[in-house]
Design a protein that fits this description.
About 30% of the residues lie in helices and about 30% in strands. The radius of gyration is 23 Å and the shape is elongated. The longest helix has 26 residues, at about 75-100. It has an 8-stranded antiparallel beta sheet with strand order 8-5-6-7-19-18-17-12. The chain has a 4-stranded antiparallel beta sheet with strand order 4-9-10-11. By secondary structure, it is an alpha+beta fold.
């Protein structure tokens, strides 16, 4: 028998990964000391853990790994699973190539003004849903922005600081597409004009023909007009991270559960305190450990995937309350929190 530290060294899985796989029932220790809670693994589990490590390294979701383990005595079945995963990876590469093919067009400056009309309450809600994720690192000024990205009749608002990413969409009138990197100062002015800095939810009965906003992008300037106000600002000319190339639809692992926003906040508030340290500046921050069990129950307790507690609570607030979909797929994949109005992605914390 070997302890979790030795098992980590021999298998290539981190200690936090071993704890997570135990929590979701994928790779449980052969014995757990009832007094100390220490986990012990049998010699034959090392090969299984190494297999899990390899499959996770190539991005196989938990459901696929679970099926490989269940059928590892059936080579034909396993070969079919691996072939299916390779096809998924190839499809992802094809998606990336299609997204990158649009880069030359995005690099060309807009010669003529491009205008689009969107519902004011929806734009206000979208700004509330993504603003928390905008960066503030002076070394990465482009991330101190909100991306306004218009394509196919949908205006996407995106914000990220590298550790989290938020996406919200707004229905838009037909028109030519554009991609505008709006500095947070300008985005906050727009939010103030729309009342998006309040806690009030958009009025579902608002008349879309009268309660609208016109957004115009001309060269390096964005202008937002309402019936009674106008905000203009200069756009950043830096390239913003590409949210279109991200596999949003593939982040739906078996570790997905429906949670109530207030219940999740209460569980996080009552969980044991733990801190981690940012490597780049040595700043401590609180950590919450989450897990989704086989039955879809969310647990907030040691042994789960670590996430920045403040980031998690801000993402819950950005979701607008009510029912949220929480997805976890291990200690090296993003945590995804979905609501009716937005999607937030949080990078895990190394424990």
């Amino acid at each position: 028998m070997r302890g979790i530290g030795r098992m980590s060294r021999e298998s290539g899985l981190t200690v936090s990964a071993l704890r997570f796989y135990d929590g979701v029932g994928l790779l449980s220790p052969a014995h757990v000391d009832p007094q100390s809670g220490y986990r012990f693994y049998a010699p034959e589990q090392v090969a299984v853990a190494r297999l899990v490590a390899v499959l996770r390294r190539v991005g196989m979701p938990l459901a696929g790994i679970r099926e490989v383990l269940e059928h590892r005595a059936d080579p034909a079945h396993v070969d079919a699973l691996l072939a299916g995963h390779v096809r998924a990876l190839e499809a992802g590469l094809a998606d990336a190539r299609r997204a990158l093919s649009a880069v030359p067009l995005l690099l060309e400056p807009l010669e003529n003004p491009v205008s689009v009309t969107v519902p004011a309450p929806d734009l206000a809600a979208a700004l509330r849903a993504v603003r928390f994720a905008a960066g503030s690192d002076p070394g990465l000024p482009v991330l101190a922005s909100v991306l306004f990205d218009l394509a196919d009749g949908v205006l996407s608002l995106v914000a990220t600081d590298r550790y989290r990413l938020a996406l919200a969409t707004v229905p838009a009138s037909a028109g030519s597409g554009f991609s505008a990197v709006v500095p947070v100062a300008v985005a906050d002015e727009i939010a103030a004009v729309l009342g998006a800095d309040t806690d009030a939810d958009p009025d579902p009965d608002a008349d879309p023909d009268t309660d609208t906003v016109t957004i115009t992008v001309e060269g390096a300037t964005i202008t937002v007009r309402t019936d009674g106000a106008e905000v203009s600002g200069t756009l950043r000319d830096d390239a913003y991270p590409d949210h279109r190339g991200m596999p949003w639809d593939r982040w739906t692992p078996t570790g997905t559960a429906t949670v109530d926003a207030e219940a999740l906040r209460a569980a996080v508030a009552g969980a044991p305190e733990r801190t981690s340290v940012r490597e780049q500046d040595g700043v401590e921050f609180p950590v919450t450990e989450l897990a989704v069990g086989p039955g879809g129950a969310v647990t907030v307790a040691p042994g789960g995937v670590g996430v920045n507690r403040e980031f998690l609570l801000e993402a819950v607030d950005a979701g607008g309350g009510g029912q949220l979909m929480l997805s976890l797929d291990g200690p090296v994949a993003p945590l995804v929190l979905r609501s009716e109005r937005s999607t937030s992605l949080l990078m895990p914390v190394r424990l």
